[in-house]
Design brief:
With 1035 residues, the protein is α+β, with helices and mostly antiparallel strands. Among the domains are: 2-18 and 164-211, no CATH class; 642-872, Zincin-like, CATH 3.30.2010.30; 919-1031. 57% of the residues lie in helices and 7% in strands. The protein is built from 45 helices and 14 strands. A seven-stranded mixed β-sheet has the order 4-3-2-1-7-6-5, with helices on one face. A five-stranded mixed β-sheet has the order 8-9-10-12-11. A two-stranded antiparallel sheet has the order 13-14. β3 and β4 form a beta hairpin. α1 (2-22) packs parallel to α7 (194-211) and α36 packs antiparallel against α37 (840-848). It is elongated and about 110 Å long.
Length: 1035
């Protein structure tokens, strides 16, 4: 009996002490998001009441035993006000407290208009909520015996990675074990000799107590909340959280003025300092923050000091930030917000981060962002089944707009998975409206409250206060409206723009080391960039300088550089990125993003040597470099720059390897000029410098640009094609020329604002010799049709190849549909709208008079029921026109000789002019031509006006008249089409033959075929106009 007693006691102690080590093993499955507790339900009711009545609402809900209640009404209300700050414009977001906090705790993250933040911890009298026993914010010290916290100037302790579920289970097990063994030891001890009973009982009890896991709970509610007393600082607190103008402009003066007016006790002086430090953090003044925090923080500092120190450390890229975040969590404020920040920081500062989103899931978090991050982490580890499960949970908590999904490579990789694909409703023109499952028990709200749901995310707006409840759908009434993710984002963006509007006098700047303010600035900047409001983006970030530090600030500098480049201020954009790079280099901080951006800018100016060095330097700063392909591409362009022949034409600069064939270069220049004239029937006159066209060797091109989806041509500011050693004018290669040329002309005409669907759709539409098969009937039948609004994010983002292929194919038919509504002029007006800065929604509305859902329905109906089964733009046989090997007597060979010999191409860009005899011959012929074609051209002009105005189809009488008059011209009854220049004669013959076909199909009501023949005639007339221009004549 004696041996059993002591062995069992010691074994129990050893096992109890060893248990925590075993608990650190990685979880094998994710904890599901925790449901809203009774205490959190009461906290939501309190938040709504606070929105209407302020601190009085909190006073009335205090438990009789609450320490605040002991202060008396007036004093308690002041203490509450000093902690909760202003109501107007504040946002209260419910957090997921760790299970170890117990079932009586609710946690809110508070964001204020000034950019200040706080965490509010409420403890209720019971698990069902009800009365409030305790209230803490970051200025309070909940720990019973606070220890000295490591600062950035001390060696940081490793952050805790013990999963909270395991921690809570151990704590419960320790308490249960303590109770059982206490009872057992009483029995065992009294079975021994009296002299040893008490000794053994005490030893066993102490062993168990020593091995119990201490909870990170705040001190008991019996301890009166007397320090710090902050009632005297209420005016200061309200000013600092409201973001009044004096605080925005000179926060230090506002703090000093309020301090002078107050008689705050010395215990509150440190809080006053910390609030001033937070105001400086919001303004991006890191030096002042560090000065106010002090070189050596006192052990009595509240958690706010650790949070400020963490954020300063993040801005300075110091790993000590992780320990400071951990200190805030240990103090009783382990919030989702801080986990997000800690995960982001760990991913930047640690090679093998232990603070991951997957670890954060162990709390049962309801924060969708953490679930999306954990899904991305699983994709990066090729754990696709786990990633799929996490993605489904994240989507149900709060769906993302589809463009954001496709913008993230790891998330985009999940969209096409069969189990997830239906979630995103890519066939719908509207974003999905995700409705939360489960039973609801609505929390009572005042009549003035406005609620809305997005997935399980419940938002409440009341009296200027926003209450955000992740996973809170169970608290919403059945009639609560459900909004899609894009609508919710729009509300957030409008709020961000209203807060940070660069056009409002006294508006705060975007520079901030405060995560809340920096997130707001980034939201506003992204909204402006997406809508092409570059001037406003420049104004918003006008105060951006690299010295502010912080990852978000760097992103804003890069967005500012993009805006400067989009507005033609490339030199300023380069200067911004150079300053950022210099500042980061001086502080020995990684800055790969800025270096990649800078490399692209200098490469656009032809400085490939510098671009290569910048990409190599950026690659050296990240764990998984991805600049190797870009280095090969820059190297290829560098070789061509150093060793290339050049030919200039009026609108192009053609470069090709030395000895690569000057004659072929002249031919390509001729093709480019001819195709430019044809393509411009859809694109208003593009301006700018001549387009640079690089003809590269096939093997070198494929080595540099051939990836998973190989390409045979591209436009990235320059047209690049692997034709240097192919030297072919065959239709399949000339189709590539027309495709890439369309990209170049559309980019020039819209100043780079044309969306991807229009770029790819119009390039296919204009490409000669390309057979386009209408996929829409089959896609509609199989339910795989992509909606029009889904095309852009798929083509712009990181979608899987099968989705890109579908979007690419559909975009060509969208362009054909637009042209069917009013001819070429409709497309020209659409291009002009984008050139003016219009969004797709506003451009479609202005040109076609439809919103996007209506446009999508109209397009699908046309594509399935009325569009042709296939479409082919006939290929012009440049190989026959421009190649000499054809027999001398053929018309094509004669035209080719005239074109190649007479093309206005030279190494200096000089152009020849027609001689006097040529002019006289052309003038005499043109008189006959004008008289003979007057009737046909008169009718053609009426038809052209109808199509350009978008007023519908021409009258059958006009169709018949145009057919008869054109047939008379092409039948040989007149020599009016026999121009002295054979190529001109051929084009005019083709134009009037197309008009004959147009008249026939128009009379028969075959509208689409008629439009195609009309376009063929217009293209032929455009080619003829180019040839007549040197003679000052028109076709």
């Amino acid at each position: 009996m004696r041996a059993f007693s002591w062995i069992s006691i010691l074994a129990s102690a050893v096992l109890a002490c060893a248990a925590p080590a075993a608990a650190t093993a990685a979880p094998t499955s994710d904890t599901a998001p925790r449901p809203i507790s009774g205490a959190e339900r009461s906290a939501v009711e309190l938040a709504a009441d606070f929105a209407l009545r302020g601190s009085e609402a909190v006073w009335e809900r205090l438990d009789p035993e609450a320490p605040l209640r002991a202060l008396g009404h007036d004093a308690a209300v002041l203490e509450i006000s000093a902690r909760l700050g202003t109501r107007a414009g504040a946002i209260w977001t419910l957090q997921t407290p760790p299970a170890s906090y117990g079932s009586r705790v609710a946690l809110f993250h508070l964001t204020f208009p000034s950019g200040a933040e706080d965490l509010l911890r409420l403890e209720f009298a019971g698990p069902a909520g009800g009365k409030i026993r305790q209230l803490w914010t970051l200025v309070d010290r909940p720990q019973a015996k606070p220890g000295r916290v490591a600062t950035a100037r001390q060696a940081p302790t490793a952050p805790s990675v013990l999963p909270e579920r395991a921690s809570a289970a151990l704590s419960d097990a320790a308490r249960a074990g303590f109770a059982v063994w206490t009872a057992l030891l009483v029995v065992l001890a009294w079975a021994q000799r009296p002299a040893r009973r008490w000794l053994r009982f005490a030893l066993g009890t102490l062993l168990l107590a020593a091995c119990s896991t201490p909870a990170n709970d705040p001190r008991s509610g019996d301890e009166a909340l007397l320090e710090p007393r902050l009632g005297e600082l209420v005016p200061l607190r309200l000013a600092l959280t409201a973001g009044e103008d004096p605080v925005r402009r000179t926060p230090g003066a506002a703090v000093q003025g309020a301090a002078a007016r107050s008689s705050a006790p010395s215990a509150a002086a440190r809080i006053e300092e910390l609030w001033a430090a937070e105001a400086a953090l919001v303004q991006g003044d890191l030096a002042r923050v560090e000065a106010l925090l002090g070189a050596s923080r006192p052990s009595t500092d509240p958690p706010l000091a650790s949070l400020l120190q963490a954020r300063v450390a993040v801005s300075r890229f110091r790993v000590a930030a992780l320990a400071e975040y951990d200190a805030v969590a240990r103090a009783g404020f382990a919030a989702d917000l801080l986990k997000l920040e800690q995960v982001a920081v760990a991913s930047i500062l640690e090679e093998f981060p232990t603070d991951t989103a997957a670890v954060a899931l162990e709390s049962g978090t309801r924060n969708a962002e953490l679930w999306y991050l954990a899904a991305a982490e699983a994709v990066s580890r090729d754990q696709f089944d786990l990633a799929e499960a996490r993605m489904r949970t994240a989507w149900s908590l709060r769906p993302l707009p589809r463009d954001e999904i496709f913008a993230e490579p790891d998330l985009a990789a999940l969209v096409a998975r069969p189990a997830l694909f239906p979630l995103f409703e890519l066939g719908s023109a509207s974003e999905p409206r995700v409705r939360a499952a489960g039973v609801r028990q609505a929390v009572p709200l005042p009549a003035a409250a406005e609620g809305r749901l997005c997935g399980s995310h419940y938002s409440i707006r009341l009296a200027g206060l926003e209450i955000e409840l992740p996973g809170g759908a169970a608290l919403a009434a059945d009639e609560t409206p459900v909004q899609d993710a894009a609508s919710l984002r729009g509300e957030v963006e409008r709020r961000a723009l209203a807060t940070l509007s660069p056009l409002s006098p006294g508006a705060p700047g975007a520079v901030s080391a405060s995560p809340a303010r920096a997130r707001l600035a980034e939201i506003a900047a992204r909204a402006l960039a997406r809508e092409g409001r570059w001037s406003e983006l420049i104004a918003l970030t006008g105060g951006e300088t690299p010295r502010a530090g912080g990852e978000t600030t760097r992103r804003l500098v890069r967005m500012r550089a993009l805006a400067l480049r989009q507005t033609g201020r490339s030199e300023e954009a380069t200067a911004e990125l150079v300053r950022l790079a210099q500042a980061e280099l001086a502080r020995r901080r990684p800055f790969p993003g800025a270096l990649y951006d800078l490399a692209e800018l200098v490469a656009a100016d032809g400085d490939y040597d510098t671009a290569i060095r910048l990409v190599k330097k950026a690659d050296a700063q990240i764990r998984r470099p991805f600049g190797e392909n870009r280095i090969r591409q820059f190297s290829l362009s560098l070789e061509l720059e150093k060793d290339a022949e050049e030919l200039r034409s009026p609108h192009f600069l053609v470069r090709f390897p030395e000895g690569g064939g000057g004659r072929y270069g002249r031919q390509i220049a001729t093709v480019l000029e001819e195709e430019r004239t044809r393509v411009m029937q859809w694109i208003p006159q593009p301006g700018g410098e001549p387009v640079i066209v690089e003809l590269l060797l096939l093997e070198s091109f494929l080595d540099a640009y051939g990836g998973e989806v190989p390409v045979l041509g591209l436009f990235d500011g320059r047209v690049r094609m692997p034709l240097a050693d192919i030297r072919s004018l065959a239709p399949e290669w000339i189709g590539l020329v027309s495709h890439e040329l369309t990209h170049a002309l559309l980019t020039s005409a819209t100043h780079g604002r044309a969306p991807h669907w229009l770029q790819e759709g119009l390039a296919q539409h204009a490409e000669m010799g390309r057979l386009l098969v209408n996929p829409m009937p089959e896609l509609e039948k199989s339910g795989r049709t992509l909606s029009f609004p889904a095309l852009e994010p798929i083509l712009r983002g990181f979608a899987e190849p099968q989705l890109v292929e579908l979007a690419y194919s559909e975009s060509a038919w969208v362009v054909a549909f637009i042209e069917s509504r009013g001819g070429r002029e409709t497309l020209r007006r659409l291009v002009a709208a984008y050139a003016g800065g219009a969004s797709t929604e506003s451009a479609i509305q202005a040109v076609l008079g439809m919103d996007l859902p209506s446009f999508d329905r109209a397009f699908r109906d046309w594509a399935v029921r009325r569009a042709p089964a296939k479409r082919l733009t006939p290929a012009r046989r440049f190989d026959r026109e421009l190649e000499r090997p054809f027999a001398a007597e053929t018309v094509e060979a004669e035209a080719g000789r005239r074109a190649v010999d007479g093309v206005r191409v030279s190494s200096t860009g000089s152009a020849g002019a027609p001689g006097a005899s040529q002019r006289a011959a052309m003038a005499a012929w043109h008189e006959r031509y004008r008289a003979a074609t007057a009737e046909a051209k008169g009718v053609y002009s009426r038809v052209d006006r109808i199509y350009r105005s978008g007023l519908g189809a021409p009258a059958p009488a006009d169709c018949a008249a145009l057919r008869r008059s054109s047939a008379a011209l092409v039948s040989g009854r007149s020599d009016a089409l026999g121009a002295p220049e054979l190529r001109l004669a051929k084009d005019l013959q083709a134009a009037f033959e197309a008009l004959v076909l147009f008249g026939e199909t128009c009379e028969q009501g075959r509208t689409l075929e008629a439009i195609q023949h009309y376009q063929e005639a217009s293209q032929a007339f455009a080619r003829a106009a180019t040839q007549l221009r040197p003679f000052a004549l028109e076709p």
